[in-house]
Model the fold of this input.
Amino acid sequence: MTDRKSLDYPYDAAPGPAEMIQVADGVHWLRMPIPLDLDHINLWLMEDEDEAGAPTWTIVDSGFGHKETQALWRRLFDGPAAGRRPHRLICTHYHPDHFGLAGWLAREFGVTVEMTEGEWVVGALLQRIDHETAAAAQDSFFRRHGMEAGLRERLAAFGNEYQRRVVTPPDRHRRIRDGQTLTIGGRRWEVLTVEGHAVEHACLLCRELDLLICGDQLLPKITPNISVYWFKDGGRPLAEYYESLDKLEAAVPGEALVLPSHKLPYRGVQTRIDQLRAHHVERLDALLQGMSRTTPMTGFALLPAMFPRKLDDMHMMFALGEVLAHLEHLADAGRAEAALDADGVQRWRLV
Ligand SMILES: [Zn+2]
Done:
């Protein structure tokens, strides 16, 4: 899907390592590495002050839990960001690139960590599940959805990847919630929680600056992963995602500059919401094409209908989660139904 034509990208290039680009009064853009396909994350540093009125930084999202980002945070706070003390970290959601260094930032710099309750609970819990327990739970989930044994074994060998990507979380967090107004640098920022990609993902809207920090919810060029997971089987993630798009559509001014966690800042929030809705309609249609009224199929067997290209093991796992999220959506709409067969495998058919 191309969106180059319709979205307006005011910046051609992202900040380099340990560099900052000011994107609005008191709001700075940083970019940190991720050792995965999606090789970067955008983080935000906001000029703020503590209770005593001393200049501080409020950070939005921590970066991935590895040494490279730790070294870059040190370089930043010794270099271009040296004039202020980091005192507060707001994590949009629990994924490792957003929450991976929350505990380290809290211990190293004394920041307080602010998150929604749902994101905190899932992140802190997942980080503490040992590799064997995670491997067994994933194996049972993959088996139920028809994944072949060889791939299941290879994936089980990863154990709990989340634990490897997130340092020990902080001891505590300060809860933020939907509708709350946070004061950052004397300005009002509204917390808008959204669902579908994570559990209680926080977006931050500043009407005064016409800025939306959207986390992963409204990415340009790529679509956020909307999945069913081994620790959260079933449910209606795609319906939740659609509902959250409606919520953002109603709340965010059309001219707002959107600060996404990946790719480049853009304007054109309404266009992007329309594109994201259309993308999932296309995916649902592709899935319907691959399904049968008479021959029930597993989520794994339906994977090529939505993802015709060849995928490596890790991407097969993500793709299965996406297929299941779309199947649940079709079931919600009365277009498909699932049965758990005597062999313990769930199969889907058109109705
Ligand atoms: Zn995410």
Notes: The domain at 21-290 is CATH 3.60.15.10 (Metallo-beta-lactamase; Chain A). The chain has one domain: 21-290. The two ends are 30 Å apart (CA to CA).
